[in-house]
Amino acid sequence: MRNILKYMLGLAVAIMLIVPLTVQAKDTNVYVIDDADLLSSEEETELQTYLASLSADYNYMAITAEYNDYENTHALADAYYTDIYTMNDPGVVFIIDMDNRQIFLSGHGTAKKNLSDADALDVTDNIYKYASKGEYYSCFVKGFDQVNTLLSAGFILRPMRYIVAALLSIVFGFLLTFFWAMSENRKASARATDRMAAAVVAGAAIGASAVIYDSKRTRHASDSGSSGGGGWSSGGGGFSGGGSSSSGGGHSF
């Protein structure tokens, strides 16, 4: 009997110890899923600790995937997220898709407000070089660091956007100069055409005067018993989700 009581007491203590751990695991807002085995055990632990230090208002998922059977990396990221949360739960997924060789960020719920498609593209533009060099842990940390800045309504560097804007400005400047030059050429051509037309009209007037003079002379000659005539004529003519969807953007590496 005493042994039974000891056994039951030990079982009760074990249950009391296990239940809080289970609840904590269920309610956690951080998941590191290394399905492609790109991180060491130490890196996984450090990444888990780092993500746990971020705002508790959002869920964070750092994922590596070896295979992708979905339409694209965005769909794969959403599938991982909805395995644990709903699409409307606030959170961020950062996935390294080895099948498509792409890194991708997606925002869910209220996270979409400060992590738009353009923001996700800018962040992945800034960090894809780490994935290209095989520095996956650094890629995750650098990426989530910028995401955390955006979720806190902060500002991040966007060099690629500035470079693209500068290139577009240069192209626009060239196009503007080109069209201005074409316009000036057309104006010059129009002036030349006007001058030519004026010359033609003047020449025609002179020719007409000559014909009229000859006609008059002919008529005068006709009056003298000869016959003749003449005449002339002229003519003319005349340059992207519904309310429950996620935001997202990525970069190949």
Helix and strand pattern: HEHEHEEHHHHE
- Give the oligomeric state of the chains in this entry, treating copies of one chain as homo and distinct chains as hetero: single chain
Question: Which regions have little confidence, pLDDT < 50, spanning 5+ residues?
Answer: 15-27, 206-243
Mean pLDDT: 76
Largest sheet: 5 strands, mixed
Query: What strand order characterises the main sheet?
Result: 1-2-3-4-5
Question: Share of helix among residues?
Answer: 55-70%
Give the helix tally: 7
The CATH class designation of the domain at 26-157 and 248-252 is Alpha Beta
Count of β-strands: 5
Rg measurement, Å = 40 Å
Protein architecture, described:
The protein is 59% helix and 13% strand. It has helices at residues 2-27, 41-52, 73-82, 111-114, 117-132, 136-151, 159-223, and strands spanning 30-34, 59-65, 91-97, 102-108, 247-252. It is elongated and about 90 Å long.
